Amino acid sequence: MMNVGDINAAWAAALIDGLAGAGVCRAVISPGSRSTPLALACLRHSGIVSRVLLDERVAAFYALGLARAEEKPVVLVCTSGSAAANWYPAVAEADAARVPLILLTADRPPELQDCGANQTFDQRTLFVPQVRAVHTLPPAEPARDWLAALTARAVSQSLWPLAGPVQINVPFREPLLATDPAPPQSSSLPPLVLQPRLMLPQDSVEILARRVEGRRGVILAGAEHVPAEPLIRLANALNWPIIADPLSGLRFGAHDRKRVMTRGDLFLRGDFPPAEIVLRFGAFPVSKAIGQWQSRAIERIVVSEDSRWPDPGRNAAMMIHADPGLLADSLAAVVTKAVPVEWLDSWYAAEQRSAVAADRLAVPEAALFRAAIAALPEGSLLFVANSMAVRDLDDFSGSSDKRLTVLCNRGLSGIDGNLSTFFGAVASGRFPAALALVGDLTFLHDLSGLAAGQGMSATICLFDNGGGGIFDYLPQTALPEFVPGWLTPQRADFAAATAIWGHRYCPTRPNDVVPALTDALATSGVTVLHLAIDRTGSAARHRAVWAASSSFEETSA
Amino acid sequence: MMNVGDINAAWAAALIDGLAGAGVCRAVISPGSRSTPLALACLRHSGIVSRVLLDERVAAFYALGLARAEEKPVVLVCTSGSAAANWYPAVAEADAARVPLILLTADRPPELQDCGANQTFDQRTLFVPQVRAVHTLPPAEPARDWLAALTARAVSQSLWPLAGPVQINVPFREPLLATDPAPPQSSSLPPLVLQPRLMLPQDSVEILARRVEGRRGVILAGAEHVPAEPLIRLANALNWPIIADPLSGLRFGAHDRKRVMTRGDLFLRGDFPPAEIVLRFGAFPVSKAIGQWQSRAIERIVVSEDSRWPDPGRNAAMMIHADPGLLADSLAAVVTKAVPVEWLDSWYAAEQRSAVAADRLAVPEAALFRAAIAALPEGSLLFVANSMAVRDLDDFSGSSDKRLTVLCNRGLSGIDGNLSTFFGAVASGRFPAALALVGDLTFLHDLSGLAAGQGMSATICLFDNGGGGIFDYLPQTALPEFVPGWLTPQRADFAAATAIWGHRYCPTRPNDVVPALTDALATSGVTVLHLAIDRTGSAARHRAVWAASSSFEETSA
Predict the structure, then answer these.
(1) Residues ≥6 apart with Cβ < 8 Å to B506
(2) What values do phi and psi take at A320, rounded to 5?
(3) pLDDT for B429-452, tens place per residue?
(4) How far apart are CA B153 and CA B167, in angstroms?
(5) Separation of alpha carbons A396 and A359, rounded Å
(6) pTM of the predicted model, to two decimals?
(7) Residue A154 in contact with residue A168, Cβ under 8 Å?
(8) Does A314 sit within 8 Å of B111, measured CB to CB?
(9) Where does the Menaquinone biosynthesis protein MenD middle domain start and stop, copy by copy (chains A, B) (predicted)?
(10) Considering chain B, what is the average pLDDT of its residues?
(11) Looking at beta carbons, which residues of chain B come within 8 Å of A447?
């Protein structure tokens, strides 16, 4: 008969083997004792690449970045007790952003629950309702063939019908280590899982086509990746422009970008005429101006790629649950009337006017963002933090035929875990170069995330505007308590922060940013370019660009 | 009629005023927009001292440390979205360790829930079942008199019948700021709440007295604060020794420490004879050796100070729910038979033998811990991390008539948030000096916690044994994957880590620790004493001390 240690090892090996058989090939592990069988099974599995990271919060955001970049579920392993609670911010982001994660929480057995045992609390409901499912396993048992099907089910739940995190809680009794060096192999294979795409029936497509064709409309490609080619084919059929959020994936790449508007946040602030119809794919846009402008349209049609209801304005006239690419192509195939060309011309003019204004008024961040995009090689990763970084990208990225992957933790738009997410994406090995654009508070909030960059090559552009610059644009700026309560400038030595993990620190003046970036991208290791931004001056120039871009009358004169 | 901004301000002011009226006087705030009315109400309340900390994980552990040191509920404020999820590790510790926290989570209103709105997820069940209660408020309303009673109820729930965290979820609509500079005062006063002590009926006390008197027993004062004087009076009446966990509060102070054993972890590893009865107050002890020894007693009686069931061995013969001080005194009053003196003599001998062995075998940490305790002035704070720090304190602190407050996050014994907790306790202002003893992984896990120490005077003794030294004592040490998977030594520059926030860094050799400590404690600001420990040598000496202390036969010869 097997002893408990051998049963634990075989059980953990069956779990990890089942996950690997269902397509998982990455594990991110934080050290601990109770999790030993799981960690060992990951480290010893030939099909799993493991990374060990001390801080579970860092580990979870790293796994999130990896899963985003690879578009595959990533396994997390931690020990019992508060360890898993440190995963929570990343789990909440994965829930909101629909990123597949498999959360393997080691646990103590039932006899140690609710009786004051060390490092033990109720982990079974920890992540509810942020997880798609919780599989609460019994303590390891000799009969383990069913774990192949369970792990296949868990991986499937992380992908469909709503991608996101899935927890498997795994209690172990002591001893945690096997005496037998080679645990028996699992004999059972996981089932192959075939998942569908959501296809709208043809009569519904026809109803939609009659509703949209010939009207002054716009496709709004929102703040998550949408399929470029089908949306462009649809825009061509309707003769509509596409407002492309910086996270839509439509701004960068070899596809036809003629109709792709990248400056809507600039020119839709004023009296630009409302559309008759806004057809949105993807999440609500980053831009508040675009969000407000589209609410003035006669009607809004929202395409939800799954069962969610992405309508924060609560004013959609139609909610379509369908695969965006399938829907766009089936709609383009049946549209017969295009809108007259004048409609599109007004968009081209506004886009051009905004580009000129941004150049003329020289917002410091604009030049930096353009330089960064120019410096990156084809296929690179461009990671942006929330708050000002993604908004400046929105306003000033423009468009390029260079293919870039733009990532941002936009599910909950948190300040947390941004560096960890970035390094996780870098770890995918899919990008010839990687650049993160982050503010000073975001950088400091994930200080420990810098540890995850050891051994990688990547560049972090740290925009230091001396605190939470975004609050300069909010009414809180007028409060007497503004500086200590909202701006919260941190007295921190960024050179020291960078040095902890042996990364390279380059204080960089705006005028030197192009050579500094080029140099950093060509150098192995992690480089932090520290750019001091004049916060007040920057805010004034942002406002000037918005004012110059947004007056429809002025520039059509 | 009031506008929405004014209603928000008055609502938040009523909440904070109600909490202050119920005894809260501290708030820890992380910056955000949706939380503006709450943050402003805290910052403007004359009865609340506020601290703003960027990282919500740091903020929550800081609040935990403050609440531990002040023994009063502390308010946390954060914005909507993933912010509150960063509180989770500290909330889980507060739940396990019964630390009162009031969690004020700002939220978006119902119309922005479940519809893809930014920074919005389901916060209402986030902390269930780790919180005592969740109060889900409606969006701010003009009628707010009832908030005085609600906040009194929330504070009461954080203290009784089981102390711990309580959440109040507070949605706000925009605009978030008031136009009226002086919001109307609340007219209603919170009720005064009177809470009971748990008193065992006299007939139950008599039953207990007959069960314990005259038998060879021991009082086990476990890993949380227990009332010294009543326990000593009871030990005197029974003529029993007291095994004092380092977190029991019994090792340091002017009380009669004659019966207080501080080296049980050393001498109870071997063939020390089992007791007939173990009467435990407080949580299960830190020491595994003590835990195993007491399981060999004929019977165990556990005193739970509330409704919990602190019996991880599942082998208690009696579970008594009663106030420890009341119970000890009422029992001492009716005990008539004491155990013969030989029983106690065998304990004195073992304690003495262990002290000699520890001195003779010169475990490096032993001298350091003794020096640290000697250097601290009366009334100081001694914070210890989990893992090796609290175990070395257990083995080597000895006992002193100097009053010290020993704190440790022993609820879930996490590696997380230790520096933040320490600085939170320091912020109470109750201690003339403060010293934290932490290992290298614990230090790095809470790197951002160093930010919280700005402006304080405190000393951190960083025991750097090059990774997770505790694993040297576990079977994982034999694995080929031991170093990358469990020991996980970090290539980190601790001088740089200390420099980020302007703290002082002192690399210290063991021989220089006494002057270095004395100097650090006398200097304002935060000092990090970095002590390199020879991990392998230290483990060997620990083992030698345990061996020399634990043979009962050898030394009674």
Answers:
(1) B516, B520, B527, B528, B529, B530
(2) -110, 120
(3) 999 999 999 999 999 999 999 999
(4) 12
(5) 9
(6) 0.97
(7) yes
(8) yes
(9) 212-384
(10) 95
(11) 447-448, 500
The residue-averaged pLDDT of A470-474 equals: 87
Residue in this structure with the two tokens 């982990």, named with its chain if needed = A123
Pick from B8, B38, B54 the residue to mutate for testing the A interface (most A CBs within 10 Å). Answer: B54
At A1 the pLDDT is 61
Please give the Cα distance from A373 to A435 (Å, whole number). Answer: 9
Confidence of residue B552 (pLDDT cuts 50, 70, 90): low
The backbone torsions φ and ψ at residue B72, rounded to the nearest 5 degrees and listed phi first, read -145, 155
pLDDT at position A555, please?
41
Q: Which of B321, B324, B338, B306 is nearest to B204 (CA)?
A: B321
Angle at A297 between CA A222 and CA B3, to 5 degrees: 95
For A103-116, what is each residue's pLDDT tens digit? 999 999 999 999 99
Same fold, A4-171 and A202-348: yes
Over residues B95-122, mean pLDDT: 96
> Which of A64, A88, A220 to probe the B interface (max B CBs under 10 A)?
A88
Torsion angles phi and psi, residue A282, rounded to 5: 85, 175
Looking at residue B282, its pLDDT comes to 96
- A203: Cβ contacts below 8 Å, ≥ 6 apart: none
Q: What is the pLDDT of residue B181?
A: 74
CA distance linking residue A155 with residue B284, whole number of Å: 39
CA distance B374 to chain A (A): 30
For A124, the 3-state DSSP assignment is coil
Rounded Cα distance, B226 and B305, in Å: 10
pLDDT in tens, B267-326: 999 889 999 999 999 999 999 999 999 999 999 999 999 999 999 999 999 999 999 999
CB count within 10 Å of CB A110 equals 11
CATH fold, domain A202-348, is Rossmann fold (3.40.50)
Mean pLDDT of chain A: 94
Nearest to B23 by CA among B118, B160, B131, B206: B160
A284:B130 CB<8 A: no
pLDDT at B554: 44
Q: Within the 263-292 window of chain A, which residues sit less than 8 Å (CB to CB) from chain B?
A: 283-284
Residue B349 CB contacts under 8 Å (≥ 6 apart), including other chains: B555, B556
Residues of A in Cβ contact (< 8 Å) with B488: 31, 52, 54
Cα gap A257→A127, rounded to integer Å: 41
The pLDDT score that the predictor gives to residue B183 is 67
Q: Which two tokens stand for residue B118?
A: 């930014």
Q: Are A259 and A235 in contact (CB under 8 A)?
A: yes
How high is the pLDDT of residue A554? Answer: 44
Distances (CA, A) of B479 to A41, A178, B471: 12, 11, 11
| pLDDT value at residue B363 | 82
ipTM of the complex: 0.96
Buried b (16+ CB within 10 A) or exposed e, B517-556: bebbbeeeebbbbbbebebeebbebbebbbebbbbbeebe
CB A154 within 8 A of CB A135: yes
Does position A556 have pLDDT exceeding 50, yes or no? no
Fold adopted by B362-546: Rossmann fold (3.40.50)
- Where along chain A do its domains lie? 4-171, 202-348, 362-546
Decide if B242 contacts B259 (C-beta within 8 A): yes
Q: How far apart are CA A257 and CA A267, in angstroms?
A: 18
- Quick check: B312 and A176 CB within 8 A? no
Which residues pair with residue B135 across a beta bridge? B168
Q: Quote helix, strand, coil % in chain B, to nearest 5.
A: 40, 15, 40
Question: Domain A4-171 belongs to what architecture?
Answer: 3-Layer(aba) Sandwich (3.40)
Distance CA A534, CA A364 (A): 9
